[in-house]
Design a protein that fits this description.
The chain is of the alpha+beta class and 1056 residues long. 41% of the residues lie in helices and 16% in strands. The chain folds into 6 domains: 287 residues, 2-Layer Sandwich (Beta-Lactamase), CATH 3.30.450; 154 residues, D-Maltodextrin-Binding Protein, domain 2 (3-Layer(aba) Sandwich), CATH 3.40.190; 99 residues, D-Maltodextrin-Binding Protein, domain 2; 58 residues; 191 residues, Hypothetical protein af1432, CATH 1.10.3210.10; 162 residues, no CATH class. It has 33 helices and 32 strands. Strands 1, 2, 3, 4, 5, 6, 7, 8 and 9 form a 9-stranded antiparallel β-sheet that branches. The chain has a 5-stranded antiparallel β-sheet with strand order 11-10-28-27-26, sandwiched between helices. The chain is extended, with a radius of gyration of 43 Å.
Length: 1056
């Protein structure tokens, strides 16, 4: 935005000049327009012819379908009362043979009977979808209601209609609810919108025609004919359009909703890979490379995004990785595809191909050869239904059926190690995912990228990926290798060196290209939003228009294809501008120069006409300044004869009222949200209860008393506006917002050994072990017979008594109710020295993080101390805790995050918190500061972070987190200190302490005032104003409200 401003008078004058200039521009533009139009007419005529040809082609398809539908309806209408299913089958099969575009023909009845025939010879790829074999040529589907409910009967026939197999299953398919049935009528053949056929997975449409039935069980039947339109793609190539094949022309045939029926677009990934340079080999190594013929490697067809093919061209992460290895090593790689994995491995074992890739090194995989270093690692994962629980360990699938792709090398080992999991092999991941979707199996196991890619590709929105599988990480390596024939022994170190030389940049680029699905530019709909907009217009005739498509100026030809009375289809061609224009722009330069010279003569014409507008505009500026100052009620409407300025003045008035209302609504929302946060903090732990709700109420009561006070100490204290009072109220609500980050097990720590649970039970179990060891020792001595039985029993009783006493002492110390003197701490150390024998490995069953903190295993059996401070008890900080100097935090930070040592915790002198625990609780003030200082408070709320973060400070500088003194603390801050303390002392909803009566709380606070912990003048105002009674009557239990002799706290001697 420019800083230069011009007056309204200059603007009005400039408009006159602009009008003149525009007139000249229009004249030049007309000349330019007609020149461009001549250049576009030739291209337009070509595309018009193509669109007509396309319309004729689609029309011929329509005519064949219409005639067939009429013919079949006539036959069925005249014979429906006597025609059999076999006759219907023969009639429909003859009709479908006559046109290769017909995929299937079917008849739906008003009683919801359904009869369909599918020609497998026209589209053999549908066989696997419906369970047909290679010998099958026809599939007949018959759905009807029977005694056992609605049944779907599927029959498989060969070319001569010899039945091979049939199966019956329940069905919830009702033809009368389908669009082709509902839209059908007896007069004309209806045509559905283009859609994707279920089994064929290509675009097609359905023609339908209704006719009256003579059968007694139904009154109407509908003929349906399915066609495919894949052949249209050939008619959309640049050559077929009469344009240069290398011109980057894009053409589409699509439906009104944007679904592409056919296109010439070639989808490519936009990611590029860094250059891979050949390694400088020794002369001997280079000689080996030069004498090596290109190596033939495997390429699978369906392991996207790792290893797959598109129209026979290898694609995938592994393919690009092998190409990098080839470039770096100098060894040429070629690929063979179109075979199953079993066929590829068979060819490798026979020596027909030189190498396999993406192979795991299992002894059971049956692949014998030279294994290179790993080329990549992939995590294992499983796919389940979205509503199924997450799978953490593979063993959790015991008793379930799990799908796996045929030929995976880890299959034999999985069957051996997990016999209770039934593995079912499928030809590909898609079939396996379908099995999960259809609840034929519970899960699919594979590597995560393949499963994630397949979920997106096949639109399984109700499935999810779980990738933990912790129990497979040790015994099932997730590394993948290249396997070479043994004859290539000399190449193995060369290829390994190339693998090691792959850079992080190359690996990152590969991951971005193949693991970021957005980088794969492919989709079933038109790629330009502008086409949607144009299509949505009422009429779309053949024309060429200029559009900015994705930042590039192109020409768009769009025409509605004439398909008679049926659903609209659209033909669009996107052509780069350079293909349409070449020399048009050169013809306009001279005209622009001459016109510019003439325009310079009109400059002195318009200056005086701005005055009647300038005056009221300046008055309107005064009113807008009132809005800026938030004086919304003072804004008035101008009295001016200029209608537009008057309307603008009225709009400013209305805007002021709306802004005022918006501010009030916004303030109410913010305060409600703040209270919601405070309530969440209170609800987080019973130890905080309603603290965050009550402190603001008490703080406002005491602030009100301070405002009314006439004492010298408070004479200058007054909230100057409602904004300042709101600022204090919000700060009070947010004074403990940092507690949202404090761990609950620290806040709720009720005993010294408590972590996420009370570890006294572990200690008691060790005492139980010593108890039983003592009994066993006594029994052994009796068996040996070396000592009298009475003596043994007496020694056992003494040992048990000592164990009982020691545990009782430990348990009592754990509660933290008494001061721990030096002799008690010494006894803890003495008890801790007692040993017991551990016979089990304490490294088993640990999480990865726990295992990292464990010391190396000792041999078993091992002697363990009864109590100990072990290295794993120390929880270190992930990173050093540093404070931003601007926050002025002055707190001593313990070395460790937590210390869970048993002796260390039991030796706590008072309470149950260690130094680390206490810091973690006090750290909530640091959290409050960081959270609030990061928020963009408006000017009127700028002191909220300060007010909310000083209620743990003292007047003598011993508080935290900043160690502020009396000179640093304002009256609002001192009010919150007293409010926080009094609420904490009298709260009745905290489970760890009894609520104190008012008298006891006041006495404690008086001592704190004498110790310069709180402001003594404010404390006295708290009493003399009756604020403590007013608060108590609202929030305290009646039994807490006792008499308080206020006078004894007001005497000057009380402060001595």
């Amino acid at each position: 935005m420019t800083n230069t401003k011009i007056s309204l008078r200059v603007t009005v004058g400039g408009m006159f000049l602009l009008a003149t200039v525009l007139t000249a521009i229009v004249a030049v533009s007309l000349q330019y327009y007609f020149s461009k139009k001549m250049a576009t007419e030739h291209t337009l005529s070509k595309l018009t012819m193509v669109s007509q040809d396309l319309s004729d082609y689609i029309g011929s398809v329509d005519l064949d379908a219409i005639n067939t539908a009429h013919l079949l309806s006539s036959v069925n209408r005249s014979m429906s009362d006597q025609i059999s299913r076999e006759d219907s089958r023969d009639i429909l099969s003859e009709a479908i043979k006559g046109n290769p575009l017909f995929y299937s023909i079917y008849i739906g009845s008003s009683n919801d009977n359904f009869f369909q025939i599918i020609n497998l010879e026209s589209f053999p790829q549908v066989r696997a979808k419906i369970g047909a074999q290679d010998s099958d040529s026809w599939v007949v589907i018959d759905i009807s209601n029977g005694e056992k409910g609605r049944i779907r009967q599927t029959r498989y026939y060969d070319l001569d209609f010899n039945l091979r197999d049939s199966k019956a299953e329940k069905s919830n398919y009702f033809p009368t609810t389908r669009p082709w049935y509902v839209s059908a009528n007896t007069e004309t053949v209806g045509k559905t919108q283009p859609y994707l056929f279920q089994y064929l997975q290509i675009t097609g449409q359905t023609y339908s025609l209704a006719f009256e039935s003579k059968a007694a069980s139904d009154t109407q039947q509908v003929i349906g004919i399915d066609i495919v339109l894949s052949s249209l793609a050939n008619k959309l190539s640049a050559t077929a359009l009469g344009l240069d094949e290398a011109s980057q022309v894009e053409s589409f045939l699509y439906s009104k909703v944007g679904n592409i029926i056919a296109s010439n677009r070639n989808y490519q990934s936009s990611n590029t890979l860094p250059q891979a340079n050949q390694i400088n080999w020794s002369s001997q190594q280079q000689s080996i490379i030069d004498n090596t013929s290109p190596l033939l490697f495997s390429n699978q067809s369906d392991r996207g995004p790792m290893d797959f093919s598109v129209s026979g061209k290898p694609h995938g992460y592994a393919i690009d990785l092998l190409k990098m290895i080839s470039e770096m090593s100098g060894v040429q790689f070629e690929f063979v595809n179109g075979l199953s994995w079993a066929e590829l491995t068979g060819k490798f074992q026979k020596g027909s191909i030189d190498g396999l890739h993406s192979v795991q090194n299992y002894e059971s995989n049956g692949i014998i050869g030279l294994y290179t270093d790993p080329i990549y690692e992939l995590p294992f994962a499983v796919v389940t239904k979205r509503d199924a629980p997450a799978v953490i360990n593979y063993r959790e699938l015991d008793g379930e059926s799990v799908a796996i792709v045929s030929g995976w090398s880890m299959t034999p080992k999985l069957r051996t190690d997990f016999p209770n999991i039934r593995l079912l092999e499928f030809n590909d991941v898609e079939a396996a995912l379908d099995a999960v979707d259809n609840e034929e199996v519970f899960a699919v196991i594979d590597v995560k990228p393949v499963l994630s890619f397949s979920l997106d590709k096949f639109f399984h929105q109700n499935l999810k990926v779980s990738e933990a599988l912790l129990d497979l990480k040790t015994d099932y390596p997730n590394q993948f290798h290249i396997v070479l024939q043994n004859k290539h022994q000399q190449l193995l170190p060369i290829i390994n060196q190339a693998i090691k030389s792959l850079t992080d940049e190359q690996k990152t680029a590969l991951a971005q290209k193949w693991f970021d699905h957005q980088a794969m530019d492919a989709g079933p709909t038109i790629p330009y939003t502008e086409l949607y907009k144009k299509t949505a217009t009422a009429t779309v005739e053949g024309e060429m228009v200029e559009l900015n498509l994705n930042g590039e100026l192109k020409h768009l030809y769009l025409k509605k294809i004439d398909t008679g009375e049926y659903y609209s289809e659209y033909f669009a061609v996107v052509i780069p501008e350079a293909e349409v224009y070449s020399a048009v722009n050169k013809r306009v330069a001279t005209s622009i120069g001459v016109t510019g010279l003439l325009m310079s003569l009109t400059l002195p014409v318009a200056w005086i006409f701005g005055a009647p507008i300038v005056r009221p505009i300046r008055k309107l500026k005064v009113e807008t300044n009132k809005v800026k100052q938030r004086d919304y009620d003072d804004v008035s409407v101008l009295d001016t004869p200029i209608k537009e300025v008057w309307e603008l003045s009225v709009a400013v008035k209305d805007m002021a009222a709306e802004i005022k209302q918006h501010e009030q609504t916004h303030e109410a929302f913010v305060e409600s949200f703040i209270k919601l946060i405070a309530q969440a903090i209170d609800d987080k732990s019973a130890y905080t209860a309603g603290h965050c709700n009550r402190v603001p109420e008490l703080g406002l009561m005491l602030a009100e008393a301070a405002e009314k006070s006439q004492s010298e100490h408070f004479k200058d204290f007054q909230f100057e506006s409602d904004d300042e009072r709101r600022e204090f109220r919000i700060a009070a609500w947010l004074h403990d917002c940092g507690k949202i980050t404090t761990p609950e097990h620290i806040v709720d720590k009720g005993s010294k050994l408590e972590a996420n649970y009370n570890r006294i039970h572990e200690v008691r179990t060790r005492f139980e072990v010593l108890w039983r060891d003592a009994e066993i020792t006594a029994l052994r001595k009796q068996l040996e017979g070396k000592l009298p039985r009475d003596q043994i029993v007496e020694e056992l009783a003494i040992t048990k008594k000592k164990l009982q006493d020691d545990f009782a002492f430990i348990a009592t110390s754990n509660v933290g109710g008494e001061f721990m003197s030096d002799d008690k701490v010494a006894r803890i150390h003495s008890i801790a020295a007692t040993t017991w024998t551990r016979n089990f490995d304490d490294q088993l069953g640990l999480s990865p993080i726990e295992a990292m903190n464990r010391v190396p295993n000792s041999s078993l059996p091992a002697k363990e101390q009864l109590l100990s401070d072990r290295p794993e008890h120390i929880v270190k900080r992930d990173r050093p805790l540093e404070f931003d100097p601007k926050h002025q935090i002055k707190m001593d930070v313990p070395e460790h995050l937590y210390n869970l040592g048993e002796i260390y915790n039991l030796s706590i002198s008072r309470g149950t918190l260690t130094m680390e625990d206490r810091f973690k609780i006090n750290e909530h003030m640091i959290g409050t500061i960081k959270m609030l200082e990061s928020l963009p408070f408006p000017k009127e709320l700028s002191r909220v972070p300060r007010y909310a973060s000083t209620h743990h400070e003292t007047l003598k500088g011993t508080g935290y987190p900043r160690k502020l003194t009396a000179e640093d603390l304002s009256i609002p801050e001192r009010i919150l200190v007293i409010s926080d303390i009094f609420e904490a002392l009298t709260a009745a909803d905290r489970p760890y302490k009894k609520a104190k009566p008012i008298s006891v709380a006041i006495d404690i606070m008086h001592k704190m005032a004498l110790d310069e912990h709180i402001d003594i003048e404010l404390f006295r105002l708290f009493l003399t104003s009756g604020t403590h009674i007013r608060y108590a009557e609202i929030y305290l239990n009646p039994e807490q409200i006792d008499s308080v002799d206020v006078s004894k706290y007001l005497q000057k001697s009380a402060a001595a």
